Amino acid sequence: MIELSDVVKRYPGGHEALSGVNLTIELGELIFLTGHSGAGKSTLLKLIAAIERPTSGVVTVSGQNLGRIRRSALPYFRRNIGLIFQDHKLLYDRSVHDNVLLPLHIQGMSGHEAGKRVRAALDKVGLLNKERARPITLSGGEQQRLCIARAIVSRPPLLLADEPTANLDEQYARDIMDMFKAFNQVGVTVILTTHDQDLIQRYGGRTIALANGKIAP
Predict the structure, then answer these.
(1) pTM of the prediction?
(2) Structurally, what CATH architecture does the domain formed by 1-80+157-217 represent?
């Protein structure tokens, strides 16, 4: 499903975030990306989501070479990906319900079916009783749950999450990981970054360690 071949990502100024990365991720895997801060974990997720493009090498997702994908095709490509990044990018002037509805509106879905999808996603993350609240009134853990609801509402086959349990207490972290595990058990490919070794040991999956932009042996 996902393949990186000799991928290099170099930023202006010469910083090389990824260097010669070769990696294959199969459909339906649960992947934990680990490594020190600056190891290249977030960059790797952004390349898979086509948020950034490789300096050299090839990133292929579902048969598409992301280095050659047209800008106009990116919204259609990303419909198949749920993105959960540390900067939540929530719309604080809209309700919880409307934040989750946004991806469906972008896809052209509205009316009863869209509302049904939104409520189902909020129910799955335990926020259905707060669908009319504003995100600013939610706790940090609840805002993270809201981001997950927004990511899964379009039922994507691939979820990418950057440190989804960072800064959460242990119970919230386990609750969120339980959600990711449940998605994975119904066939969703889940790739997430984390520093939490206890979570990795608890939930299994495959661990890929990065060090200084390379896959660690």
Answers:
(1) 0.91
(2) 3-Layer(aba) Sandwich (3.40)
